[in-house]
Amino acid sequence: MKRFLGAMNRLALALLAATMAAILVSAPANAQRRDKALEAALMAHVTELASDAYEGREPGTEGEAKTLRYLGRQWFDIGLESGTNDPANAWFAPVRLVAREPASSTAAFSRKGRRLFVPPGSIEVFTSGKRTLLENAPVLFLGRGVEDAGRAELAGRVALLLDDGRDNSDRQNALLKAGAAAVMTVLDGDRTLEQVKARRGRSGYALATEELGGDLEAFITAEGLDRVLADSGVTLASLTALAAEPGFAPRPVDLTVTLEATTRETRINTHNVIARLPGRRPEAGAVLLLAHWDHFGRCAEDAAENQICNGAIDNASGLAALTEIARRLADGPQLDRDVYFLATTAEEIGLLGAHAFAENPPLPLSQIVAAFNIDSFALAPRGTPLGIVGRGLTPLDDGIMAVAKAQKRKVVPGNAANAYIQRQDGWALLGHDVPTVMVSSSWSDLARVERFFETDYHRPTDQVKPGLDLSGTAEDVAFHVALVRHFADPKKVPSPAK
Ligand SMILES: [Zn+2]
User: Do the beta carbons of residue 390 and residue 434 sit within 8 Å?
Assistant: First the structure.
């Protein structure tokens, strides 16, 4: 009996020790309970949005339509309202993108009414508009400088510039602004016409709202110019020597030129998704949460077996987090401030959806007391401290630290995560003075982030696969719920001045 009791006691002690050891081992630094239901919900969103059916969520494709439908339905079911503030475009705010590339180029020179021969392949004309035509304009030689050229002298003329071997777009723009009808650069240095053309062909997408110019720029080879100057009394060499003389003044060249260029446009009609959780006191301002929905679509070479960049971490994980934060806030007590939920388009091609939101916002941007971006929130397991992208750049740090303390979350010291500041949507909003940060365990350890960049990032392998761990995402969701409750409270965070 005693022995037995003794054995019982030893067993009980061993069990107690084991239990305590288990508690010590499994207790994460933040001591929060693991929310497996939340992890499962996040995994369900990521699995859906990163499935091949969504074709890599490329703007303007069926993958976009599916993504918008999924988010719209989820957010509607959670109880959010449309946040576009535009009855004609509830939930989905149109964002129009355009990419332009040079399509055609023609140039003709004449002297005293006689057409001059230009060797093929020696001149290229570009316009910043759709189609621009300039007919029979006189030519004014400006050497390498523009200081002496007056508006009256430049008006209606083609400014002929010597190249200085590098990009001279500043000089060109100054001349166009000063009234030149076009700028023609002589490629008398190292740059070739092929290099100039290659550079022009590569301009990416931009918001279609941006003003179309109609500026004409031409580039002519040294041989090409010498050919059209034949029998004019000057050569490129004599003009170059002239430009080097002290007191050089712009000099008319005995030529007229007709230039025409057209641009091919590729347009994408895409959308931001904007929802709102109404607060009791919307006049007290708003909190904004955002995550980009877009990714790269079919991104691999045709021959590759796996062609789709599914973007599971980047950024299905962010959309999953955004959606589950919304659910918890909607299920909780009503907040004072409005909370806006924004899923941006075209982040991957230049933060364009975030720029579009900032340029055409559904509420005055000055009313946003805090904005939190959510990008690639699935890089770290639970128990990882938080990093702040944008630390020291907004008035939000004190509030974030207070919430971290209350939530028993550690925040890594220092501003190392700011290395990524320009690579995320928050950057576009910061440019419009919206206080925006990104707070996540994903961004606390640069070595971990760099490992992601070197492996799955922007590759078809960023997909749902064994080992995808959303336990850190779940903790970051819980943290953001607390964060939004804090910043939505005018007693804790004062309202912006009207
Ligand atoms: Zn990305």
Answer: no
Domain 31-98+267-487 classification at class level: alpha beta
Where do the structural domains in the chain lie, given as residue ranges?
31-98+267-487, 99-265
Find the 29 Cα to ligand 1 centroid distance in Å: 29
CATH of domain 99-265: 3.50.30.30
- Stated as kind and residue range, the H or E segment containing 130 is none
201 Cα to the center of ligand 1, angstroms: 23
Q: Which of 43-52, 151-160, 314-323, 340-349 has the lowest mean pLDDT?
A: 151-160
The stretch 470-480 carries a mean pLDDT of 98
Name the residue type at position 158: V
- Highest-confidence segment of 4-8, 89-93, 172-176: 89-93
Of 341, 344, 339, 367, the closest CA to residue 355 belongs to 344
Give residue 296 CA to ligand 1 midpoint distance, Å.
Answer: 8
Mark the residues whose beta carbon lies below 5 A from ion ligand 1: 314, 348
Task: Please give the structure tokens belonging to residue 29.
Answer: 């630094």
What is the Cα–Cα distance from 353 to 421, expressed in whole angstroms? 17
User: Are 31-98+267-487 and 99-265 equal in CATH topology?
Assistant: no
How many angstroms does the Cα of residue 456 sit away from the middle of ligand 1?
11
pLDDT higher at 39 or 177: 39
The H or E element spanning position 9 is: helix 2-26
Give residue 349 CA to ligand 1 midpoint distance, Å. 9
By the 10 Å C-beta count (0-12 exposed, 13-18 middle, 19+ buried), 467 is classed as: exposed
CA of 292 to the centre of ligand 1 (A): 9
In whole angstroms, give the CA distance from residue 299 to residue 295: 9
Inter-CA distances, 431 with 94, 333, 355, 361, Å: 21, 33, 9, 14
Q: H helices then E strands: how many in the chain?
A: 14, 17
Which of 388, 329, 341, 347 minimizes the C-alpha distance to 368? 341
Q: Give 353 Cα–ligand 1 centroid separation in angstroms.
A: 13
Provide DSSP, 329-342. Answer: HHHSPPPSSEEEEE
